[in-house]
Design goal:
The chain has 137 residues and is α+β, with helices and mostly antiparallel strands. It contains 3 helices and 8 strands. It has one domain: Roll (Thiol Ester Dehydrase, Chain A). Strands 1-2-6-7-8-5 form a 6-stranded antiparallel beta sheet. The longest helix is centred in the middle third of the chain and has 19 residues.
Length: 137
């Protein structure tokens, strides 16, 4: 994702159209609308792990970008735990910014489908912050 992109711009990108992500009604929540192209295991109709991981990473970037409007945001690393088998339905994500330092930010994301209290995945992301005048790279 381009580091200075806002949600409306991201939604128009190929990745944005593939994820079908929408901001939630509540702050720091996102929903990826289910599409057949998100199925990873057609036998049990489970979502692809790459789809789940992508939602975690993109939600972390989008949420952090709202809090540091004068900075570029770039994913450095992520660690994702898959906790339960997913189903062929919408996937929700709740983002929690743990810490914003001078050059790095630490963000946790929890994903669920039916109930927020029953997560299907969890991710921890480290993101680089740079001035908008600096070149990413």
């Amino acid at each position: 994702m381009a580091s200075s992109m806002d949600f409306a711009e991201f939604a128009k990108t190929p990745m944005g159209r593939w994820l079908q992500i929408q901001p939630g009604i509540d702050d720091s929540k996102y929903t990826a609308r289910f599409g057949e192209h998100h199925i990873g295991n057609p036998v049990i109709r489970a979502l692809h792990g790459g789809f789940v991981g992508s939602l975690i990473e993109v939600a972390a970037e989008l949420e952090l970008a709202q809090h540091v409007e004068d900075k570029n945001v770039e994913l450095v690393s992520s660690s994702i735990e898959y906790l339960r088998v997913t189903r062929d339905r919408d996937l929700h994500a709740k983002v929690e910014i743990v810490r914003i330092a001078r050059r790095l930010a630490f963000v946790d994301v929890w994903c669920w489908q039916d109930e927020a209290e029953i997560p299907v995945a969890r991710g921890s992301c480290i993101l680089r912050l740079s001035d908008k005048t600096e070149q990413a790279g």
